[in-house]
Design brief:
Layout: H1 2-16, H2 21-24, E1 51-59, E2 62-67, E3 70-74, E4 81-82, E5 86-87, E6 104-106, H3 117-123, E7 131-135, E8 148-152, H4 155-158, E9 164-170, E10 173-178, H5 189-193, E11 201-206, E12 209-213, H6 223-230, E13 235-239, H7 257-267, E14 271-275, H8 289-301, E15 315-320
Parallel strand pairs: 3-6, 6-7, 7-8, 12-13, 13-14
Antiparallel strand pairs: 1-2, 1-15, 2-3, 4-5, 9-10, 10-11, 11-12
Helix pairs in contact: 6-7
């Protein structure tokens, strides 16, 4: 019965829904029978002795962050497909066995391109009792693996206009849930029907370093400015897609490149790293259209020297020891 209900929900949402992950991957048909593009020369040993702050971009919103001696993995999706709808166009930027033992994993929301149950299964043996932080509501979709699941309050979508929800310190890392403008649920329509607010951005702080991870969000002209009053952000990892023409700031639940730039400026962060593009098909658009648009806008906003775009599988040091 539950399966039939899920199928009905998905079918209705595909037919009548607005901007959702399902519409975004509806153009994935041409790639369904192709093998993902190979990432050559994948990094085998990502723990860098000379780095205070580094990131290896695995693809989409999956990032391996090194903050001194700590390893943080965001929204891990290492499977070839997400759900049954979309196949990745390019391999993950690192082999699963080469991901080091982690100190923290974060899940920004339960959509299938951010919460991969198959990936959680692949990582569980090396990371038993690993702290996994997520906003309230995600627990409904999590399997009973041997992780240390930590549910964090996010003020139900920040309806009280406070851009910081909750905080917790684990393994020496302090994590904050911060403002995001998205929607919850896992199958699209369930998030709207039952009003789930299981989404968030994150701030990670460790040893004087501060990293912002946007997950998935729309733009808000006030909340990100408020965050800049509280946090001195070294690196802002901000989504720039999906979009096809990529004009304007975006919509209510996703930012386009210009919206990402505005978030970066409002945050007063030191470095912008764009994420959330290049892996899954959005209609029939070039998956790198968001990056092309971003590169044009960087000159207009005069932040070329503050932006660092990584290739999938690339690791970059942002702050050296």
């Amino acid at each position: 019965m539950k399966l039939l209900l899920k199928i009905l929900i998905i079918t209705l949402f595909l037919q009548f829904g607005g901007c959702t992950i399902f519409q975004e991957i509806a153009g994935n048909g041409p790639s369904a029978f192709k093998a993902p593009k190979e990432v050559k020369n994948k990094i085998i040993n990502p723990v860098l002795p000379n780095a205070r702050l580094s990131v290896l971009w695995i693809g989409h919103a999956s990032c391996l962050i090194q903050m001194d001696d700590k390893q943080i993995l965001t929204d891990p999706v290492l499977t070839t497909t997400i759900g049954i709808f979309s196949k990745r166009l390019i391999e993950p930027g690192i082999e699963t066995e080469n991901i080091p033992k982690l100190d923290l994993m974060s899940l920004s929301h339960p959509h299938i391109d951010h919460l991969s149950l198959g990936t959680l299964n692949e990582l569980k043996d090396k990371n038993r009792n690993l702290p996994v932080v997520f906003p309230e509501g995600v627990e409904s979709y999590l399997p009973g693996y041997d992780y240390n699941y930590i549910r964090m309050q996010n003020h139900r979508g920040y309806i009280d206009n406070n851009p910081v929800g909750d905080s917790v310190t684990v393994n020496g890392i302090t994590i904050y849930t911060v403002y995001a403008r998205h929607w919850g649920g896992r199958y699209g329509l369930d998030g709207f029907l039952w009003g789930e607010h299981s989404y968030t951005g994150f701030i990670f702080q460790y040893n004087g370093l501060t990293v912002y991870f946007g997950g998935d969000t729309g733009y808000d002209p006030l909340s990100f400015k408020k965050l800049s009053e509280r946090f001195n952000i070294d690196l802002a990892m901000i989504p720039i897609g999906p979009c096809d023409e990529c004009n304007g700031c975006g919509n209510k639940r996703h930012v386009y490149p210009e919206g990402a730039i505005k978030i970066f400026i409002d945050l007063k962060a030191k470095v912008l790293m764009p994420i959330h593009y290049g892996v899954f098909q959005f209609r029939l658009a070039d998956v790198n259209d968001p990056l092309y648009k971003l590169e044009k806008l960087l000159k207009e906003y005069n932040i070329e020297d503050k932006t660092q775009s990584l290739k999938i599988g690339e690791q970059r040091i942002f702050i050296n020891k």
